[in-house]
Fold this protein.
Amino acid sequence: MKAVAWHGVGDMRVDRVPDPQLVNPRDAIIRVTSTAICGSDLHPYDGKIPSMMKGDIMGHEFMGVVEEVGPGVKNLKRGDRVVVPFDISCGNCHYCREDLWSLCDNSNPNAGALEAATGGFSAAGLYGYSHLYGGYAGGQAEYARVPYADVGPLKVESDIADEKVLFLTDIFPTGYQAAEQCGIRPGDTVAVWGCGPVGLFAIQSAYLLGAGRVIAIDRFPERLAMARDVGGADVLNYEELEDPISFVLKDMTGGRGPDHVIDAVGMEAHGTGVYDQVDRVKQFTKVQLDRATALRECILACGKGGTVSIPGVYIGFIDKFPMGAAFGKGLTFKMGQTNTHKYLKPLLDLIEAGKIDPSRIITHTVPIDRAPEMYRTFRDKRDGCVKVVLKPHAS
Amino acid sequence: MAQRTFERPAYGGPAGRRGTDPDKRHGRRGATARDGEAEGQDRNVNGVERLLSVAAGGALAAYGLKRRDWGGLAAGVVGGFLVERGVSGHCAVYDAAGLTSTSETGRRFAMPHTADADDAGTLVRQHGGSATVDAKKAKRVVQTFTIFGRMPGELYDYWRRLENLPRILQHLERVEELDARRSRWVAKAPAGQTVEWEAEIINDVPGEVLAWRSLPGASVPNAGAVTFREAPGGRGTEIKVNLEYEPPFGKLGVAVAKLFGEEPSIQVREDLRRYKALMETGEIPVSYNPGQGKPPHATFDARVNRGETGGDVRGLQEDARDAHQAVHQPTPSDQARGENSTMTAKMSHTEARR
């Protein structure tokens, strides 16, 4: 089959590889009909994720049709149309049972090495996202093996288009969880750093959850336009601001600051200040893996008693953490990988009820053969690129 | 498709109690054997004193029950304690005071197995040829996991059927039960070698503990125990493995094993992880594609150590360890230039002014 494989920093290729096979009783094989490039796929593309190996198949946002199931899978059959959550979760361990699916104890065969690398904890295996996260083949391919298929994939019964439900696999639930964990009360103001796909879904989710106003922050005009037009947010281009963003946000909110803030940027933040330069040097020399400009701004800007919600990915240590501001304002921090399974059904219902149309953020739909070029376009944010959908079986 | 068994592990009735005559099971709190006889490792009350303790405690408790007032309650509690230490042979007061009324002579090898006994260096090691594991050379491994949704009894039952173990102990090729107590173990060793030894079970309390030691002639002398304890809050079972072994070729052997990722502490950790996965989910997670050929030639940890896993994973692991150490033990220079110490100084100055 054809698959998008990692071959090094900035080097994605479409390889011919053997088809996946059933291995465990609870596995299924999915014929992938649509798959997307996620913003977090840019981290391995940029060489920021350790334990990527040549030939690793990328991709954790995919959906398709069930081709084959193992004897332990009773709820799916050949021909069912499913979306697959990006976190691989067993459904049996304490964390899965608590709806903390991304913290699954069992799905990562390399959990021990991950524990050693993180200083003592592991997390769910992920599709196509390094060997520390399990070394599973991803879904940017014609076929994919899905472990624990009896608890993961969500069956889509209606004939709604792939494009409308594909993002249930990751970015819609990720944005939704980011907004949900703010504990928004009616009329609250929420500021969102980053208007990439996760930020765009966080904006829309914040409104769905009752926010009165969302302020979106980015530097790319096309993303800000989408935040305004699709999300209905007030937008700020931080490169055009004369004052620090926390001052500007305070001015915009009667001196209170936003009630909640969302860091939808993560560890590869682009910043303008002197700390950003220091961070870049540290990141380059591996003293510090993460650049935390957005997170620091979030903490400084958040209003008293508010929530700092962090869907952006961090993997290492950061410094210059404004702990005094966080403590002084009595902030709550909520973060982590998305517990996708928890959100699949309720969010599918929202889509089918027409409350939200996730397909509006798609800017590019191409056959899988064009994946390497689209990785570049997406990384460089050229051609107005916000979200790329790949079609594995199109030619 | 690769040949794999698809059934969930079968549990059945209690498989334990095989080959353990009743008096051996009295060593509930310990796995120490003296001259082959299982006995509580932390037993610290001698036989005569135990009898007296039970008798006196019983009398005191009866008296307390009769009085039915606060003084009676106190007498009852003290009486109950005396009975308990007499029956178990373990006295918590002696323990806290570091006392014992038992004799400490004789051949001894020891594996603590209760979770409360094995954390504080209570492991008793013996020197010389009569010990199973020579204390001067011994390496110790302790690993623990919580297995959700399973009770100690069923986990014990699966483990006690020794022929199940090669499914979860990755380096084990097979186990043959020679008789009710003795078994022969064949394990894979680094560089394609195998290691064989005979072992005997020295403590077997169904649903609680299984302890073993290798018999003379083992190339890697070892003794160990696996304990099962119900986790608090309905979280299933806490399982803990305690293992002591004499690494072949001493420290050099340990270093080489580390290099190849075959170090027992990592093996035990990964084996317990597989056991947990199998017991919780009915399968062991696998991420390689069998269509692409054989599974990886070595464990993931071994491949990390050999630098085969892409990026500097080893470096990341070392950084994480260093960072932990730095957090726990700030260096004097950190403290000297840190803002915290300045702040603390300022605050204590403020405190002083008040």
Chain B touches chain A at residues 1-2, 4, 6, 146, 148-149, 235-236, 266, 269-270, 273, 276-277, 280-292, 300-301, 304, 308-313, 315-317, 319-321, 323-324 (CB under 8 Å). Chain B has eleven helices and ten strands. The first helix of chain B runs from residue 47 to 67.
